Amino acid sequence: MMPMAAFTGPDGARAPWDRVLVTGGAGFLGSHLCTRLLDSGAEVDCLDDLSTGRAEKVAPLAGRPGFRFLEGDISEPARARALTGPYDLVLHLAGPQCTAAWHDRPVELLDAGSLGTRAALAVAKRDGARFLLASSPPARPGVPHREAPGPGSDPVGPHSTCAEAVRFAEALTAAHAAAHGLDAGIVRLFGGYGPGMRTGDGTPPAAFIEQALAGQPVTVAGDGGHRHPLCYVDDMTDGILRVAAGRSVRPVDIGGDEAPTALELARHVIGLTGSGSPLVFTGPPETPAAPERPVTGFAREIFGWLPGVTWQDGLERTVAAFRQAPEPVPTTERAGEWRM
What we know:
Blueprint lengths: L18 E5 L4 H12 L3 E6 L6 H4 L8 E5 L5 H6 L6 E4 L13 H22 L2 E6 L24 H21 L3 E7 L1 E2 L12 H8 L4 E4 L9 E2 H12 L7 E4 L6 H12 L5 E4 L14 H7 L7 H14 L16
């Protein structure tokens, strides 16, 4: 059994890395990780092509010592060579993520899983850095994530793009660890939410918060019985950094234990916002499929990770943050002085 990771989360302990590369760092989770790493004393290079990330998310970090925002796509051949480092840790969040943001971009998703992951691995190998791939279970309702994608998955089926991109990125990471001795690991992330999360894609709880704060009807699919496993962003970033500080090659699930129904989420959001928004049920009632649940025993036993924020408290913090600074509308503007 390997020792528990040295990184102990938000208690003021210094990170065990001097310089970190975060690909996809201007996304929801990436921006939180950049902040946590800077707070713990590490220098951070944040790389993002802003196709799904937003410069506004990391704009508050621009003036902090040790932070650089680099606009670019890790999949481009010349990009990895321009990342001079040297890095102690490469957090690859620009890999394949099974979210609505990628739904209409199948080629880019496959490139992210293949070319992007290969380039990020090359940077880690060059510098002798720890490499951690942020992965996600493909969205296949009713199918446990351990079985998807599996040996019998259909490469041209309705969920093929995400399944194949995720499977290849994970296989490539494991192959580099085995063939080249690279210190590489994988985290599979489930249900992250919190301040700064994406809105506008119809996904609870973000959609409910956006609707309630705008005074619009809060729309719940079916009879609201579908469950949504949730993990507050502070807990998720802590789990990621604990795994990063270890030497595990085996994939580690990071996600919450709680899975409230859509109806419970909607009612709680309406109560927190004080909104007069009515609940509107869309579509016929249906027997909800079992949600994909993280298997977090490994994260608990080896890395000492436990989610500490209940979904009720997490929603309260998230609603408060959205009141203060609503999620910005996507913009084509770029902070030119930050470009690489």
